[in-house]
């Protein structure tokens, strides 16, 4: 439709969660993101679904993109030395007229082969180490997602094309996120489409991270390698570092990403003031500069956050057990015409929607 | 007789084309049903027509228009009234960010809360004087770079009774026009080079005129609003930043 990448627009994001863990058909997230068609230009779209692999829920699901057969074979030789793959198969796709020469997509359901049982966190660190090594060192292959019972489907095209290609309509998930891309500073390639994902973190982003260089160097100190040529990648790793590894509650981690101004901190009570000063000093390298509205998800919750001066839009709505987040209200109303509650979150204040503990397998809670 | 349209399965391009055709045939009243995310509705329309919108119109509702009166029975998304020149947009719900962006004439009346950067870069020229009235509360950067026109914030019909009436950085870069806030404003929220003063007789007469029209459209009681205290925010001088870039 609009192939001219000089058009001025912004990306579109959408997210849905059912807090009771009921499965939501893929059609709904497709409908919501395509309602925001105008926000992209055909150079990227993607979906993340949680709860899509109940039969393999105990295994890490690796979604792998390979440029050619040779790269894939090299990758497999490496992978099978590292992990036990209980099952692997091509990710089912349809032929889509407008999608020419797509990469090869495969999924692997794996367990780490360890001599002794490790605590979850250490096991996850080992998995990340492997993902980082593969993405940085093996040519022509990228692991696009690596969480349990979840997966990322993304590529170059409009959302309805990517949805058609990956058969998103055939999946059901208790959390969905979606993205419609309008790349401005970085290439529109398959790996650079959103969501970005690591373990069960996935993130979609509208905006640009001007502090990418600072954030990338900060993350490298902790062993994260940025290989996907797009600014948003750093946010995924920052969430993993701050929330999963450093155990900051989500709200505090989001405050590190989008902190209040010093003039606001100045007005707070002593205790909170000290906390926020410390946070800004310790996590200076995690501060995200530039415009952003992000939706991120994990096994157990979904979170929306905008930059502290709100240079990108975000709308949230609730209806019964469902919460919806999107760039435009219309994208919510197209699948939920009469929400009980609809609101525009404040700049820099995260909207955190978690399922009550015990709702889904391998559930995480960081709220 | 109104032209009544159910636009549920129509693209915004088709809706706008159809409206233009009907206007050229002499139609003056429109009613759009099941509007959801349709962009640029009534963009650039110069004729004095009247329109009712049921639903949530998409971005840039009424942009560049210089004629229509539009009544929205729902919320409006970002950039409603972008660079509009004349006419009126009445919204019975809430509104998103950058409402009245670069607006240069006409009126926008919102019942509820609005988002960030509302009235950014509004300007007035000769007989053109844009006005935005917000019944609820506002996000940060209200009237940013404002060069002319009037913004009135009532803070009455808000989803967030606990929040301050405006956000931070109010009127940042403002060098013309007036912002009236019902009640007191904590100077913390104010941008630089602005002053807060009490309203005078002239202000009150003007507020009465605008709010009479607002209350008529919203079916609210003027008396209970106009008797409240208002604060007036104006730039300290015509060129508060004159020495910043050139000296």
UniProtKB/TrEMBL annotation, chain A:
It comes from the Bacteria. The active site is at residue 11. It comes from Thermodesulfobacterium commune DSM 2178. InterPro entries: GATase_2_dom, Glu_synth_lsu_1, Ntn_hydrolases_N. Pfam families: GATase_2. Residues 11-356 form the Glutamine amidotransferase type-2 domain. CDD domains: GlxB (cd01907). This is Glutamine amidotransferase type-2 domain-containing protein.
TrEMBL record, chain B:
Coiled coil: none annotated. Gene3D superfamilies: Glutamate synthase, alpha subunit, C-terminal domain. CDD domains: arch_gltB. Residues 31-187 form the Glutamate synthase alpha subunit C-terminal domain. GO terms for molecular function: oxidoreductase activity. This is Glutamate synthase alpha subunit C-terminal domain-containing protein. InterPro entries: Archaeal_gltB, Glu_synth_asu_C, Glu_synth_asu_C_sf, Glu_synth_lsu_3. PANTHER family: TUNGSTEN FORMYLMETHANOFURAN DEHYDROGENASE, SUBUNIT C (FWDC), TUNGSTEN-CONTAINING FORMYLMETHANOFURAN DEHYDROGENASE 2 SUBUNIT C.
């Amino acid at each position: 439709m609009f192939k001219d990448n000089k058009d001025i627009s912004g990306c579109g994001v959408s997210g849905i969660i059912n807090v009771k863990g009921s499965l939501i058909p893929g059609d709904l997230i497709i409908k919501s993101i395509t309602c925001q068609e105008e926000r992209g230009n055909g150079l990227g779209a993607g979906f993340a679904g949680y709860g899509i692999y109940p039969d393999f829920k105990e295994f890490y699901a690796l979604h792998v993109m390979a440029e050619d057969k040779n790269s894939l074979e090299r990758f497999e030789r490496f992978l099978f030395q590292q992990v036990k793959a209980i099952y692997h198969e091509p990710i089912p796709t349809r032929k889509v007229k407008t999608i020419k020469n797509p990469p090869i997509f495969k999924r692997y359901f794996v367990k780490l082969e360890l001599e002794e049982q490790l605590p979850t966190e250490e096991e996850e660190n080992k998995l990340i180490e492997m993902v980082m090594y593969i993405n940085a060192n093996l040519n022509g292959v990228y692991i696009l997602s690596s969480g349990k019972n979840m997966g990322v489907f993304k590529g170059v095209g409009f959302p309805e094309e990517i949805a058609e290609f990956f058969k998103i309509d055939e999946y059901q998930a208790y959390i969905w996120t979606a993205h419609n891309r309008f790349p401005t500073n970085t290439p529109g390639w398959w790996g650079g489409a959103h969501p970005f994902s690591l373990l069960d973190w996935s993130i979609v982003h509208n905006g640009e991270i001007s502090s990418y260089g600072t954030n990338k160097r900060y993350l490298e100190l902790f062993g994260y390698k940025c290989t996907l040529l797009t600014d948003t990648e750093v946010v995924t790793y920052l969430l993993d570092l701050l929330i999963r590894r450093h155990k900051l509650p989500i709200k505090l981690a989001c405050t590190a990403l989008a902190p209040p101004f010093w003039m606001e901190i100045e007005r707070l009570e002593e205790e909170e003031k000290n906390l926020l000063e410390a946070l800004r000093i310790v996590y200076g390298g995690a501060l995200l500069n530039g415009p952003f509205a992000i939706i991120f998800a994990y096994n157990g919750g979904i979170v929306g956050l905008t930059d502290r001066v709100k240079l990108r839009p975000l709308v949230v709505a609730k209806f019964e057990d469902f919460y919806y987040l999107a760039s435009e209200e219309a994208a919510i109303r197209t699948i939920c015409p009469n929400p009980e509650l609809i609101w525009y979150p404040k700049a820099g204040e995260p909207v955190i929607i978690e399922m009550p503990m015990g709702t889904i397998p391998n559930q995480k809670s960081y709220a | 007789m109104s032209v009544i349209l159910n636009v549920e399965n129509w693209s915004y391009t088709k809706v706008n084309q159809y409206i233009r055709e009907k206007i050229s045939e002499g139609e003056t009243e429109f009613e759009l049903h099941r509007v959801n995310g349709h962009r640029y509705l009534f963009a650039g329309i110069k004729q004095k027509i009247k329109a009712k919108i049921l639903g949530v119109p998409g971005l840039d509702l009424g942009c560049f228009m210089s004629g229509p009166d539009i009544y929205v029975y729902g919320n409006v998304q970002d950039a409603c009234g972008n660079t509009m020149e004349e006419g009126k947009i009445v919204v019975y719900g809430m509104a998103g960010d950058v409402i009245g962006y670069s607006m240069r004439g006409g009126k926008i009346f919102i019942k509820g809360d609005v988002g960030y950067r509302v009235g950014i870069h509004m300007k007035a020229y000769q007989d053109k004087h844009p006005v935005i009235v917000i019944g609820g509360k506002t996000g940060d950067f209200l009237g940013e770079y404002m060069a002319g026109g009037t913004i009135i914030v009532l803070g009455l019909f808000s989803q967030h009774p606990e929040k301050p009436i405006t956000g931070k950085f109010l009127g940042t870069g403002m060098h013309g026009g007036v912002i009236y806030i019902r009640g007191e404003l904590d100077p913390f929220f104010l941008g630089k080079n602005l002053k807060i003063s009490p309203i005078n007789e002239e202000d009150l007469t003007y507020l009465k005129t605008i709010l009479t029209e607002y209350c008529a459209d919203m079916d609210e009681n003027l008396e209970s609003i106009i008797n409240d205290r208002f604060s007036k925010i104006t730039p300290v001088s015509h060129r508060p930043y004159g020495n910043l870039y050139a000296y």
